[in-house]
Amino acid sequence: MIPHQSEAIVLRTWPVREADLLVSLFTRDTGKVRGVAKAALRSRKRFGGALEPMTYVRAAYSEKPREELVQMDQFEVLASPLLQSVDYLRAATLAFYAEVLENVLPDHDPQDTLFRLTLAALEQTRVDACWMPLTYFSLWTTRLIGWLPETDRCTDCGVRFADDVAYFHVLTDGLSCVRHKKPNSSVLSRDSLALAQRILREPIHALAEEAWTRQRAQDLRRFLVRTLERHIERRLNSAAAFARLGG
Ligand SMILES: [Zn+2]
User: Fold this and answer.
1) What residues does the ion ligand 1 have nearby, CB within 5 Å?
2) How many other C-beta atoms lie within 10 A of the C-beta of residue 112?
């Protein structure tokens, strides 16, 4: 057994056998790991309050030679998303972070920048302020995982959008100019294109003071969700909640 200790974010749990849980963990040191938390549902001392998705913990776990699943030994809560109030949008946003990370992270591959981005987004995700961190997280995650196309020029011809809108299509990669857009494309507005450039340049707290309605950057979020979904080859269930809320 090789013992490990790392900061980590809980992504998901599944019940297995009686009181045991299978846990998916985004660790800072080794990336995504999965393991069994034995008697987790009974042992408040070892895992009390630390198993909710998007809880930031210090995790102790043990690796067994030649076994893919680790043994989760103990979690200490560093920050719980449940310490602040939760409404439907905030719950949906937290579920979205967890579902995206669970699906885009490769196993055992450290992603320190993405880890720090996630903590920064979590800190900004409050009941009255979810749309900005949601947009920021979506854009940067897509970028850091290597799936973000050029956001300032046409994928087909390279012409810069400058003061023009861009177009995207659910079945193809990238953004297109008006000449190369596919039939039934969606529009990405000039405001959202400019905002994407700012998000790529500025730290998240620089955007935190601005008013964000649910309509702001709605087209950009849809473009990012479609991009993520095409790469992971499945729908993101939690993203449906944003459409229901009109964002
Ligand atoms: Zn073009």
Assistant:
1) 154, 156-157, 177, 180
2) 10
| Segment 88-144, tens digit of pLDDT | 999 999 999 999 999 999 999 999 999 999 999 999 999 989 999 999 999 999 999
User: In 3-state terms, what secondary structure has residue 242?
Assistant: helix
pTM above 0.90, yes or no: yes
Domains of the chain plus CATH, in order, are: 2-82 (2.40.50.140), 84-244 (1.20.1440.120)
Ligand 1: centre distance to CA 160 (Å): 9
Angle made by CA atoms 145, 151, 157, in degrees to the nearest 5: 115
pLDDT digits (tens, 9 = 90+) for 174-183: 999 999 999 9
Q: How far apart are CA 67 and CA 70, in angstroms?
A: 7
